[in-house]
Amino acid sequence: MSFQVPQGALVSIVGPSGSGKTTLLGLLAGLDTPTRGAVLLDGADLTAMTEDQRARLRGEKVGFVFQSFQLIPTLTAIENVQVPLELRGDGGAATRARELLARVGLGDRLDHFPSQLSGGEQQRVAIARAFVNQPRILFADEPTGNLDGATGAKIVALLEALNRESGSTIVLVTHDLSLAERTQRVIRLADGVVVEDRLTGGRLSETDGAEASVAEGAAR
After folding, report:
1. pLDDT for position 77
2. Of 100, 103, 89, which is closest to residue 59 (Cα–Cα)?
3. What is the share, in percent, of the chain residues with pLDDT greater than 90?
4. pLDDT tens string 95-110
């Protein structure tokens, strides 16, 4: 497969279980490396980097939202959100974390531990953590998969708002076709191949799937 994602886009990747969606997301984020081909992230070739270099790039430019939230259970909501900034040694982590938690509607839950939060609240903490370093691109793996329909809709609306306000590229994997249709572009996989690549207005994108062995993803 071969495709590009321009800066500021909101894109969904869909397909049946086993089609390669999560694998593709891991490749695009530099969590995995392809056996051949290239993955370009903001002009940097992830496949030519060491693991340390990829980790540094992720810390600077990438946010990741997991289906299972992946919050640290012994840290409060605000402490979980501060972690990426503290790992980078940035100042003002607490202020930035507090602002983001307020933005996602959790300004009154700063000192609550994950076990004291609902599933939707935990996912909002995870989204705040993913945005705290102001990433150029955010990857979300089934961000509504563990949530009920109403809560999932709120999470989608939050991602849409953050996409508009921050200009961050968002690439999300989902089984929810109604969610996918709310994004600007849908890329459909089957057996590791792009079988459809279209704008949600129904018009095929200019980067309709081309034959290749691995992803060439670009966030510019």
Report:
1. 96
2. 89
3. 45
4. 999 998 998 889 999 9
